[in-house]
Write a structure and sequence with these properties.
Layout lengths: L3 H26 L1 H32 L5
């Protein structure tokens, strides 16, 4: 936890998880919220997931591939 870039990567993964959980909850509940926000949440999750994967790849690459 001393590495600030690791914290950024961790936060990005948590953001993806929160977006995913909100989307799943909205889908399970259905109704107006699901109709209005399901597509927007999916797009947001995809963008957040892309950012998280890129950050993870940069983190692994800059740290020497785990060695």
């Amino acid at each position: 936890m001393d590495d600030p870039f690791f914290v950024v990567v961790l936060v990005s993964v948590l953001v993806v998880a929160v977006i995913l959980l909100i989307g799943i909850g909205g889908f399970a509940k259905g109704g107006r919220f699901n109709r209005k926000y399901s597509n927007k949440l999916m797009r947001l999750r995809i963008v957040a997931q892309l950012i998280a994967v890129v950050l993870i790849a940069i983190y692994v690459w800059t740290r020497g591939f785990g060695g």
